[in-house]
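Example record

The entry below shows one chain as it appears in the dataset: sequence first, then structure tokens.
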Amino acid sequence: MIAFSNALLALTLLSVLLSLASHRLVALVKIMAFQGIVVSLIPLFIEQHMTMGSILMLQVMILIKGFLIPGFIYVAVKKIKIRREIEPIIGYHASLFTGLIFILVSAFIADRIHASHSLPREYVLLMITAITTLASGLFLLMARHKAITQVIGYLMMENGIYLFGTALAKQTHTQYIVEFGVLLDLLVGIMIMGIVLNNINSTFDDVDTALLGQLKD
């Protein structure tokens, strides 16, 4: 079980690095759908005792993270007819290098947490992945112009928060209740973002959020 969970965590880190290096929006949505499914499966192989309620909640997480939210984003990408992020604030090679730095910093932080708070050794990689995913999502949010990419960065941050909850929550049910509330907020936010994207695209023929500075009362 531990070996399989470590493989899933490694795949999550790989998806983070791929998302930082990707400039095609459709590919980015697919990466996030894959990441959502993998992240949702991780507690299944980490928790020692899973109730039927917990397994049902995991299925709901997979549905929302892996299919529903990426589906909404994919529809939005198709409607605005923009295929790639052009001239990002921070280039793709620099973004990938930043992702690698995040992994190193996360390893240092996780080791400190393990030493000072007696975090189980099998949870160290989970903490590294959680911190890296959260930091990379925030980075993606700030380093890209397109609103779609920024929404994906927000989604990646939520995946990082989910992994934090998996590592630190003492009661699994509490973790999933909080996570489900966050997911509902995220789902509503993405639906609203879809409407906003349509309006931005119809007004400016682009979804670069820098164009919002041109709006006047």
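Notes for this example: The CA atoms of residues 88 and 116 lie 39 Å apart. The first helix runs from residue 2 to 21.
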